[in-house]
Amino acid sequence: MILNVSLSVLVSGYHVDVVRNLTKLLFETNVYDKTLRPSMDHSSATQLSVSFHLMSINRLDEVEKRLVSTAYLVVEWQDEFLTWNTSQYPVYRLSLPQTMIWKPDLVLKNGFTEFKELGGSFYYVLVKDDGVVKWKPYQVFESQCSIDVTYFPFDTQTCNIVFTLWSHTEYQVTVDTFDIVIDRDEYQSNSVWEIVSTSQKRDSSTKNTVLTYSLRLKRKPSHFVQNIVLPILFLGILNILVFVIPADAGEKMSYSITVALGFMVFLTIISSELPANSDTTPYISSYLQIQIIMGGVALVVSSLQLRLRHRNEGQKVNGIFELISKISLCKIPTHKNAIAHNDVSLGGEKEQNLTQDEEEENVSWNDVSSAIDFLMFVIYSLVYLISTIGVMAKLERGI
Questions:
Q1: Which is it for strands 66-78 and 46-61: parallel, antiparallel or unpaired?
Q2: How far apart are CA 266 and CA 236, in angstroms?
Q3: Do 274 and 63 form a contact (C-beta atoms < 8 A)?
Q4: At CB < 8 A and 24+ separation, what contacts does 381-387 make?
C-alpha cells in the first residue's frame, strides 16, 4: 500500500510546497541574477542549440518584398545556476516565466519592422533539474525577401529568415543547430506558394553568430495562367484580326482602340502584382508592351488606310502604294482580271492577258486598302508567333 502511494506521488507530481521551496531556494537563497550569463566560469562560452519549426507561410508580398511566416524556435541551453538535488526536492521539471531567468538575446536580423524581443511575458520556459532550459518562442515573423519576377508567373523565390545574437559574441555564447534543417511536421500548405527545398546556414565569421534559414518557394501558376496569361494570348490574336475587318465596315477604328485598351488593363493588373523596381522586368510585361506597341501601330495604319480608301478614284495610284498593291495582287485576283477570265471562257474576242499599262489602270484605292490589310495581317501574324514562342521559351526556364 505504501509502495503504491509513493509511486502515485512520483508519477502524478509533487506538492505545491515543494515547488514553492524550490523556487525560493533558486531565486532568493541563491540570489539568482538574470542579468548574468548562466555559467560559473565566464571564460567558457554558453552552448546554445537552436531549431526552427515552420507552421505556415502567411504571405509573400512581392511589392513590399516581405515574407510573413508563422513559426517557433526551440532553444536549449544549460543554466548552471538553476540546478537542484532531486532527492531533496523531488521536482524534475519546473515551468517558469521567461522574464524570470536569463535567456539569449536572439533577434530577427532581417526583420521588416523594428527589433523586438522574441516570445512574450506570458511565455514559459521549461527547466530540468540538471539546469537544461528549453525555450520555445512562437511568433509571426515578418522578414525581408529579395524578389526576382523575371519568370512570373513561373518564378521561384528564395527567402531567408535570419537570426542573430545581438549582444553576445561567439566567445560568450556559441550556437549549434540540430541535424534537421527546418521542421515542417506541423506545416500548413499555402495556396499560392509551395516549398521546394529548405536549408540552414551558421555563420560565425563575425563577432555575432548568424543563423540563416532559407526557404526556396515556387509559385503555383494555375491561377495566373488562367486569369492573366491565356487572356493576353487571346488578346494578341484579336490584335491580328484588326486587319481582317474591311475598311468599309465602319468598326475598324473602334475595334482597334478596344483591343489596345484591353492590353493596357492587363498591364495595369500585372503592374499592381509586381514590385515597383527596375532591377528585373518580367518577360510577360515585355510581351504586353510589344502587344501594346503593335496595337498602337495598328491604329496608325488603320487611320491611314481609311484615308486612302476614301480618296477620289480618279486619282492615280503610284509610288509605294502601287508596289504594295502589286505584291498583294500576286496573291488575290483583281475584279477586272476575273471579268477578263469570264469573257475568255464565254468565247469573247477580248485579249486574255492585260498589258502592264492596263494592270496599272486596274489598281484602285480600294485595292490599296485591301493590299495593306493583307500585308499587315501577314506581318502581325509572324510577329505574334515569334514573340509568343520566344516569351514562352523564356518562361519555361523558370518552371
A1: antiparallel
A2: 12
A3: yes
A4: 381/240, 383/290, 383/294, 384/236, 384/237, 384/239, 384/240, 384/294, 387/287, 387/290, 387/291
Provide the pLDDT for residue 112.
86
Cell digits for 34? 538574470
Distance in angstroms (rounded) separating the CA atoms of residues 254 and 259 = 9
Distance from C-alpha of 168 to C-alpha of 209, rounded to nearest angstrom: 9
Encode pLDDT of 38-66 as tens digits.
999 888 889 999 999 999 999 998 888 89
- Closest by CA position to 78, among listed 105, 98, 49: 49
Q: Which pTM value belongs to this model?
A: 0.77
Q: Minimal CA–CA distance to 297: which of 370, 237, 391, 380?
A: 380
E strand or H helix that includes residue 325: helix 320-329
Confidence of residue 277 (pLDDT cuts 50, 70, 90): low
pLDDT over 70 percentage in the chain: 82
CA-CA distance, 141 to 56, in Å (whole number)? 11
Give the other-Cβ count within 10 Å of 270's Cβ.
19
Condensed to tens digits (0 to 9), the pLDDT of residues 177-224 reads 877 789 999 999 999 999 999 999 998 887 888 999 999 999 999 988
User: Could you tell me the three cell numbers for 259?
Assistant: 483591343
The residues, ordered by sequence, that sit 6+ positions from 283 with a Cβ below 8 Å of its Cβ are 150, 151, 152, 391, 394, 395
